[in-house]
Amino acid sequence: xxxxxxxxxxxxxxxxxxxxxxxxxxxxxxxxxxxxxxxxxxxxxxxxxxxxxxxxxxxxxxxxxxxxxxxxxxxxxxxxxxxxxxxxxxxxxxxxxxxxxxxxxxxxxxxxxxxxxxxxxxxxxxxxxxxxxxxxxxxxxxxxxxxxxxxxxxxxxxxxxxxxxxxxxxxxxxxxxxxxxxxxxxxxxxxxxxxxxxxxxxxxxxxxxxxxxxxxxxxxxxxxxxxxxxxxxxxxxxxxxxxxxxxxxxxxxxxxxxxxxxxxxxxxxxxxxxxxxxxxxxxxxxxxxxxxxxxxxxxxxxxxxxxxxxxxxxxxxxxxxxxxxxxxxxxxxxxxxxxxxxxxxxxxxxxxxxxxxxxxxxxxxxxxxxxxxxxxxxxxxxxxxx
Length: 386
Ligand SMILES: [Fe+2]
Prior knowledge:
Blueprint: E1 11-14, H1 22-28, E2 33-37, H2 40-44, H3 49-57, E3 61-65, H4 74-87, E4 91-96, H5 98-110, E5 122-123, E6 133-137, E7 149-154, E8 159-164, E9 172-175, H6 185-204, H7 210-232, H8 237-257, H9 261-273, H10 277-292, H11 297-306, H12 316-333, H13 346-363, H14 375-385
Parallel strand pairs: 1-9, 2-3, 2-4, 4-6, 5-8, 6-9
Antiparallel strand pairs: 7-8
Helix pairs in contact: 1-3, 4-5, 6-7, 6-8, 6-10, 7-8, 9-10, 9-13, 10-12, 10-14, 11-12, 13-14
The protein binds fe (ii) ion.
Fe (ii) ion is lined by residues 194, 198, 263, 277, 281.
């Protein structure tokens, strides 16, 4: 028996060239002046050329906010709100990876709600809706364009604040695989493994539901087969499209089934050592999977089959272990380093470990894991990832 579950998603447009019509879509949503939150690198790479042209074609004025740091912070959300209010824009367009989209989500709700973004840590604390938001991802990974989550770093406390609210769901998601063609190798690997982590964690999550199961399994098939191809040849449009579709499906899956131990332990690494989100997940995925298999061997055996392992004749635990080995091979093939190779100093890492474990537990994500980790077990996983 399935207990009642909510499944949320925004209106979405998926496909090659879909972002070329961003201007018309914004106009249909009542845009008068558009506040664009993006990354300045994307102008140089040409990712925004056609999007800006589509706004011009609709005679839509816009104000650009693109001087973002590598992760969304409280300061930049506040700066964005100030600029937005000065500009008189009535709709927000976010283009880029997790940083612009998460920043834009926070700006959107804080434009119409009292207080500070820090007041709304946790679930369902935001009192009312924000400005309409159109999200266009330019990486195939975060899934933020289709979720009710935003993660904002409080630089004063070094905490990645997880905030969830239906009011953080974008009004419209435009998912255009062509925007990912110019992504560099390392970013392709890290964001793609973030997406694979979303699919795996949503599938084994204690909050998994029938709708998310379909999406998780499909995302795992698409990502395991196509991410290596997109990584090896960024111009392979079919591989880029299927990787993007996998990321989109994985976003819908974890948006409704939540994430688990990998994400719980990954956010504190990002907050303390400024490691990009996809990378901190990628280094943890192998050790966390191996730890978690015994919590639900049946589900991990199905994951093994979905990512292309031949599990015929194997019992669930043997199949689950084969799946974990395949994920390890993929991470190695994509040249993901260990934490010690990312310039993180050993003494500092071990000093901060108790604090990171506190933050992981406080996020609530580890409670969704099929096997609940003790503090000592989390320390063991961090040591392996280092
Ligand atoms: Fe993620």
